[in-house]
């Protein structure tokens, strides 16, 4: 059995494989190992390569042979639940849960009484492993008793029940929930609470329930004091424990909650949502999302209003992206818990009176582009909002689809299309996946999806699983086809602007190529091009001085002008598109000190020179203004790009003076002092008959 134990339970993969090979050798040569061939088949060299599989699957199969059951259990209890690696400790306790049905009496009469003193012992690792092992074994024994139509306490003498109850009291009285040890103890005891609740232990009305509730609440308030690595684990354990505790101990025979307890719990949790600590908001948001239906009944509006407040960005909590994310996740969970009833009360169901308000809150989350020192933290909020929108929509579709209004469905699909065209692979992939889930859902189909037939042609059903949204080379050629659908054009173009004008090489290459392919396709269709240009100007206008969009948008416009995307308009005198574009660019860079923005705008101004009419003098005047910009790098970039422009569009200047103008541009040191540069610039103005820009007195 020692070789079998090493093959299945050793932490190191090489040791597991060596033990498996040695066991195989012995079985082959001696043939005296019990059930050797059967065990070898399950635990061969390759099978033992996966540690989780070893602990949770192979071990259960081998423990089914009586010769190995007890040695394996003893090894886990003696050597593994006190292991220095927490992952091994947790896997061992789950393995004990899975093996319990093979030896329930041994577990109940020998193992559990041994574990109970260890769970309040002095060694931290042993204490942690023993608490989790008590939780898992108790749950397994109770499930077994219920399956055999026995009382849940069948395997538990009074002493064991008391021992399980005393774990929390002992740790609390010895202050073992504090400090670094508390980071291990809190999730372990929360797991114990969850398993004892799921086991339907006869503790209803016992004072220990109040102690457990205190620990759950305290753990959610304690999230700010622990390391970021432990935070998620504590939050998830506490929320799972809360759901199980409420479902088992807070419901009466009529399926209702005690009104006083419900009032206290819900009011306390909703008030914590406005805590000044972000992590406390996170914890209590998720806790509200985990409450069972009987505790939300009659309190739904209070809960939804509280969660909605967390999602609103205000100056003092602008960086609380994780709290906004958790509140959006909780809103969808609450909706799924209470269910839908069109003409029901808004205090009990998702119904006509509150559905639009819920959608409005979730749709606000899709517009969160907050950034801080961690990067695009708004991305977490957008991701949660997209998931919650999908969950709510599918919930409504399967019960009362008439509650989904056409304008809401259009907004959802348009926002998802925009996110599917953006630059961060992970969020683009998530948006694309949600978009296709809603498009192809068919029992029954989601109503009011704009351009459904065209979308199903662009994204065939059979490609739903195979299309890799993470790969820019696959995603952008598809998503740019939505530019031809009026309902989606604005949002897709907004998303594309950020990608085409971005800094990531692959995203930039494939998004730009897909956009230019679309532009080539509509060159022969004046109305399609006019509509596209109107949308493009609208995107620019709506995002004026919003640097997240306007800076990459200028870069994209520069590329589009250089690629001849608007050649159809260059022959027309004073076409409105370049005139409006020039005005917007001028407005965008007014008083700007952003070098990237200024440099992008130079390219756009140079590209606008190809249009006929009064535009040219205005464009030259603007470029000559930039030749005397306070920043030397901008003066130098302008001179270099104007030089290239005169080479490219040689017909925009009188051939007699073009060489002289190019000589001034190339021979002048544009990084010299401003008075010197201004003199050279004024020579250019006179030469090209453009009015000299005048210094405005301060």
UniProtKB/TrEMBL annotation:
Gene Ontology BP terms: adherens junction assembly; bicellular tight junction assembly; microtubule cytoskeleton organization; post-chaperonin tubulin folding pathway; tubulin complex assembly
Domain Tubulin-folding cofactor D C-terminal: 410-597
A GO cellular component entry from the record: lateral plasma membrane
Keywords per UniProt: Chaperone
Pfam families tied to this protein: ARM_TBCD_2nd (PF25767), TFCD_C (PF12612)
Keyword Chaperone on entry: yes
UniProt xrefs under InterPro entries: ARM-like (IPR011989), ARM-type_fold (IPR016024), ARM_TBCD_2nd (IPR058033), TBCD (IPR033162), TBCD_C (IPR022577)
Any GO molecular function: beta-tubulin binding
Tubulin-folding cofactor D ARM repeats domain ranges (all copies): 2-37
UniProt cross-references to Gene3D superfamilies, sorted A to Z: Leucine-rich Repeat Variant
Family: Belongs to the TBCD family.
Protein name: Tubulin-specific chaperone D
Species this chain originates from: Ploceus nigricollis
């Amino acid at each position: 059995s020692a070789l079998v134990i090493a093959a299945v339970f050793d932490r190191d993969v090489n040791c597991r494989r060596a033990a498996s090979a040695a066991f195989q050798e012995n079985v082959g040569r001696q043939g005296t190992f019990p059930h050797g061939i059967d065990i070898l088949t399950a635990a061969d060299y390759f099978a033992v390569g996966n540690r989780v599989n070893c602990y949770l699957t192979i071990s259960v199969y081998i423990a089914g042979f009586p010769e190995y059951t007890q040695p394996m259990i003893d090894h886990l209890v003696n050597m593994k639940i006190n292991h220095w690696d927490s992952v091994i400790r947790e896997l061992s306790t789950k393995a004990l849960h899975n093996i319990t049905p093979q030896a329930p009496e041994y577990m109940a009469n020998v193992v559990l009484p041994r574990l109970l003193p260890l769970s309040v012992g002095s060694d931290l690792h042993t204490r942690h492993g023993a608490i989790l092992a008590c939780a898992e074994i108790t749950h397994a024994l109770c499930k077994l008793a219920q399956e055999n139509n026995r009382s849940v306490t069948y395997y538990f003498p009074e002493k064991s029940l008391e021992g399980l109850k005393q774990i929390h009291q002992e740790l609390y009285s010895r202050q073992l929930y504090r400090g670094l040890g508390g980071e291990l103890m809190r999730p372990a005891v929360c797991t114990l609470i969850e398993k004892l609740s799921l086991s339907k232990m006869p503790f209803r009305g016992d004072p220990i329930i109040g102690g457990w509730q205190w620990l759950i609440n305290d753990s959610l308030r304690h999230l700010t004091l622990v390391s970021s690595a432990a935070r998620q684990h504590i939050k998830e354990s506490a929320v799972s424990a809360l759901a199980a505790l409420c479902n088992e101990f807070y419901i009466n025979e009529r399926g209702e909650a005690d009104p006083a307890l419900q009032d206290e719990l819900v009011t306390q949790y909703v008030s914590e949502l406005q805590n000044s600590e972000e992590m406390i908001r996170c914890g209590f948001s998720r806790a509200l999302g985990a409450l069972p239906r009987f505790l939300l009944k009659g309190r739904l509006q209070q809960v939804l209003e509280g969660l909605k407040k967390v999602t609103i960005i205000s100056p003092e909590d602008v960086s609380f992206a994780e709290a906004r994310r958790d509140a959006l996740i909780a809103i969808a969970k609450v909706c799924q818990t209470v269910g839908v009833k069109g003409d029901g009360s808004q205090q009990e169901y998702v119904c006509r009176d509150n559905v639009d308000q819920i959608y409005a809150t979730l749709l606000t989350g899709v517009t969160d582009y907050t950034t801080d020192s961690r990067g695009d933290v708004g991305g977490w909020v957008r991701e949660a909002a997209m998931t919650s929108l999908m969950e709510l929509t599918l919930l409504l579709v399967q019960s009362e689809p008439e509650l989904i209004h056409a304008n809401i469905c259009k907004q959802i699909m348009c926002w998802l299309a925009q996110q599917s065209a953006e630059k961060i692979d992970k969020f683009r992939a998530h948006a694309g996946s949600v978009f296709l889930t809603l498009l192809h859902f068919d029992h029954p189909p989601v109503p009011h999806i704009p351009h459904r037939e065209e979308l199903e042609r662009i994204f065939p059903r059979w490609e739903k699983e195979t299309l890799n949204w993470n790969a820019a080379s696959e995603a952008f050629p598809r998503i740019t086809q939505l530019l031809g659908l009026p309902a989606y054009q604005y949002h897709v173009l907004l998303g594309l602007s950020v990608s085409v004008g971005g800094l990531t090489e692959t995203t930039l290459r494939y998004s730009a190529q897909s956009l230019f392919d679309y532009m080539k396709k509509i060159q022969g269709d004046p109305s399609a091009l006019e509509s596209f240009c109107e949308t493009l100007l609208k995107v620019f206008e709506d995002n004026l001085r919003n640097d997240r969009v306007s800076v990459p948008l200028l870069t994209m416009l520069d590329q589009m002008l250089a690629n001849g995307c608007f050649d159809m308009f260059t022959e027309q005198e004073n076409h409105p598109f370049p005139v409006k574009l020039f005005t917007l660019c001028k407005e965008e860079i007014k008083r700007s000190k952003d070098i990237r923005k200024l440099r992008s705008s130079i390219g756009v101004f140079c590209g606008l020179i190809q249009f006929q009419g009064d535009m040219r003098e205005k464009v030259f005047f603007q470029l000559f203004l930039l030749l005397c910009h306070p920043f030397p790098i901008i003066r130098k970039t302008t001179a270099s790009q104007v030089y290239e422009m005169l080479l490219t569009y040689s017909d925009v200047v009188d051939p007699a003076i073009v060489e002289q103008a190019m000589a001034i541009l190339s021979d002048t040191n544009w990084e010299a002092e401003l008075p010197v540069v201004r003199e050279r610039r004024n020579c250019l103005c006179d030469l090209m008959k453009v009015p000299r820009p005048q210094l405005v007195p301060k």
